Amino acid sequence: MAEVKRKIQDFHHVSRGWNIILNIIAAAFSFICIFPFLFVVIISLTDEKTLATDGYRVFPAKWSLEAYRFVFQSGDTLYRAYGVTILVTVIGTIFSLILMSLYAYAISRKSFRYRGFFSVFAIVTMLFNGGMIPTYMVVSQLMGLKDTLWALILPLAMNAFYIMILRTFYITSVPEAIIESGRIDGAGDFFIFLRIVLPLSLPGLATIGLFSTLGYWNDWFSALLYIDNPNLVPLQSMLMRIESSIQFIQNSKNSSLSMAALQTIPQDTTRMAMVVLATLPIIFAYPFFQRYFVQGLTLGAVKE
């Protein structure tokens, strides 16, 4: 027995040389993943004329903050758009997790009589939808959500694909014996879900929460359809309007006006600056969800 354990330890043991090589490979792979975003940041900080003459370089000859000055010239509009996007993302993610986790838990339990019907109902919505015009009529006219923040939240609150992921996670990761033991002790369904199922489901909920967060943060189409009030325009929609303004000036038939305006507008660097402004805040969401990933690995162990 001792010999078997020693061979297993030798099999899993990595020599110091291989450990260094593997760390170098991991570091190189990490750098390859991070470098595109770093390069976008570098381009956004490059002087527009230098970019036009020298092209894209990692170490530009001249640095400039003109692109960010141009974007921030919108003043309160940019900060208001950030606030709207953050509010919609936070409320929408929480709301989505509540709805989808409850729905997925119900259809994951064999004791639920209508689990088959509601599973098929969710799957059908993945294959068919009413179309853009009926959806617009329902949201804006039937529900009366036009020019409200709920128009940015409710259309993305439910996702059938995420529901199926959570349903599979509940089935494979939440033992039926734990739920039965809770019922034997007299616990109700909501108590079991809140005190037993949710602690066991943190990795799955964190994954779906991250997907929902990215969906809400990057959503611009809902604002295009339902928002006319400039005070409710989210960040992505506002940045698209800035981009459209630049393209309008570029395509202007009045060439003298176009050339005069383009000389004062940093074009390529402004686009990169908008990418940085739209991407940088969402990066901070990853460590938050990663913390729950790590916690979920150690929670909910079944005692025998």
TrEMBL record:
Ranges where the ABC transmembrane type-1 domain occurs: 82-278
Membrane topology: Multi-pass membrane protein
InterPro entries linked to this entry: MetI-like, MetI-like_sf
Localization in the cell: Cell membrane
Segment forming the signal sequence: none
CDD domains in UniProt: TM_PBP2
Alphabetically ordered keywords of this record: Cell membrane, Membrane, Transmembrane, Transmembrane helix, Transport
Gene3D superfamilies referenced in this protein's UniProt entry, alphabetically: MetI-like (1.10.3720.10)
Gene Ontology CC annotation, any one: plasma membrane
Highest taxon in the source lineage: Bacteria
Transmembrane segments: 20-45, 81-105, 117-137, 149-170, 190-217, 272-289
GO biological process: transmembrane transport
Family: Belongs to the binding-protein-dependent transport system permease family.
Name of this protein: ABC transporter permease subunit
